[in-house]
Amino acid sequence: MRDEQTVRAYLKVVRNVVLLTRLRSRGDNRLSDENLFDLMDAIHNIPTFLAERDHHWFTPERMRERFIEYDARWSGSGGLNLVKVLDEALETKPKTNSPSAH
Q1: I want to staple 70 with a disulfide (CB 3.0 to 4.6 A). Which of 29, 42, 78, 95 is the partner?
Q2: Is the pLDDT of residue 22 over 90?
Q3: How many other β-carbons are positioned within 10 Å of the β-carbon of residue 13?
Q4: DSSP for residue 30
Q5: pTM
Q6: d(Cα 35, Cα 45) in Å, to the nearest integer?
Q7: How far apart are CA 58 and CA 46, in angstroms?
């Protein structure tokens, strides 16, 4: 299993993809079939990447390469910028639960 910050960052990517897909699955502003295919192709290995830390294929570099490929093709036309979502999430420190004063 990956460290907590990495897990949170990649789950944020998945969350953003799910929200975009849900919001743009109907109506006039639908994602094209091609965009949707490329988006799913870019993220479908995230669960294995997170669960199998020592997997020889699913490395942070390979995951990023897939995101870069998607971004190059689609981020300028209403798609997500997957690398930006990931990098911002990796830079964000997890919140700690501190006791509140009453």
Answers
A1: 42
A2: yes
A3: 20
A4: P
A5: 0.86
A6: 17
A7: 8
